[in-house]
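Ligand-bound model needed. nicotinamide-adenine-dinucleotide.
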Amino acid sequence: MHTEIPTPTYIPTLPPIHDYGIAIVGCGGIVNYAHLPAYRTHNLTIVGCFDRDPAVAARTAAAHHIPRVYDSLAALLADPAVTIVDIAVPAWEQRAIAEQALAAGKHLLCQKPLSEALADAIAIAAAGERAQCWVAVNQQMRWSAGIAASADLIRNGAIGTPTDAQIWVSADTPWHMWPWLRDSAHLDVMYHSIHYLDSLRHLFGNPAHITSRHARYPGQPERAETKTVTILDYADGLQATVMVNHHDASRDTAATFRFLGTTGIITGTIGSMYDYPHGRTDTLSYARHGDALVDIPLKGLWIPDAFIGPMASLMNAIQSGIAPVTSARDNIATLQLVHGAYRSAQQGRTIAPDSLSS
Ligand SMILES: NC(=O)c1ccc[n+]([C@@H]2O[C@H](COP(=O)([O-])OP(=O)(O)OC[C@H]3O[C@@H](n4cnc5c(N)ncnc54)[C@H](O)[C@@H]3O)[C@@H](O)[C@H]2O)c1
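Prediction:
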């Protein structure tokens, strides 16, 4: 017997109205190599940008033909042409900007992590609800081809009841791209594995328990954890593991996922982790148990193509009234996993993530 090749639906699509005015706050690396290229592909309307370093804002505006550079956040927020504020600054700067933008009646796309402190993330979600504005979080891995296609297959019953999920990444991560992370007290889980934890929630929902162990590479320049193993236990017996090593100096990078169920299996690779941020297209294979794996060809790159997903979802929320898929409220459960992982590693015990509020 041969498994037929299914055709999953996974390419993000924009809602009917998508000419909302977007202004960017923070014009650093990710905006230049991911946000703006994705928005240009889809002809979105970027009305202006602001960075606390005016030269960086001017350079970004020139490179991406952005018509206006604001000289302050207040000027950006006072512009009636701006409906959506797209924030991409280090996490500890995000709450103050988000609260001012919400007070000005703007809808927000915030970068991940929404905040390093759970209490700040909860405050941002509450401020959005008070202002009756949508706050989406840029957890765009959900729209990466491999994860989005897996989600569609799993939703359609391709593997039966999910029983095991594994994400394994061993790579030489270019931490020098984010000099401000070198002395951060949190590294892999807060800034990287957060994508895998959020994707696992997208695929399988919220686990009942989390257990995590963290380690460092000998002599590493970064202060915090660069090697982690995290286990998510679900109430129904599903178990998910996330194993990440950012100090793999071999040329044998591994970045794979494997989702097993009672009737089938999905395996694949996370293309972005092979030569970040250039990356390559994800791969995906699928089989019903007993059959040989078949390859399902995918299109697109996590960076930049998946970056249209959270923006499209935010625009859909504005016109439909249905919360963005990665709303700030939803993201609190992802951050509970992040903080649960740190607490587990520090205290050497298993944590119930939904019990965490700080
Ligand atoms: N895959 C992803 O989703 C992904 C990847 C990389 C980075 N990020 C996130 O995006 C954010 C930015 O990362 P980056 O790599 O672009 O960093 P970066 O250092 O290249 O850029 C950050 C920019 O923000 C500006 N800035 C800082 N504080 C500001 C403030 N209060 N007001 C205005 N501008 C301010 C800085 O001057 C800088 O130009 C971070 O939160 C990071 O975690 C997400």
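Residues 21-139+308-328 form a domain with the Rossmann fold fold (CATH 3.40.50.720).
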